[in-house]
Specification:
Largest sheet: 2 strands, antiparallel
Distance between the termini: 39 Å
Number of strands: 2
Shape: globular
Bound molecules: zinc ion
Length: about 50
């Protein structure tokens, strides 16, 4: 079995783009998000450069 490629449940970004939780993403409700911002709809922070 190949490891499942994880992607953000909201925008579908692949794990290499995740910034949340040191790149591990944020798990909630059985789904995985790139960061908590995608989960709670406060805005994805993965593209912020500052
Ligand atoms: Zn996301
Ligand atoms: Zn994000």
């Amino acid at each position: 079995m190949m490891p499942e490629e994880r992607s953000c449940s909201k925008y579908g970004m692949t794990q290499s783009e995740w910034r949340g939780n040191d790149g591990s993403g944020y798990d909630a409700d059985g789904q995985t998000y790139c960061c908590v911002g995608c989960y709670d709809d406060t805005g994805c922070t993965c593209h912020a450069e500052s």
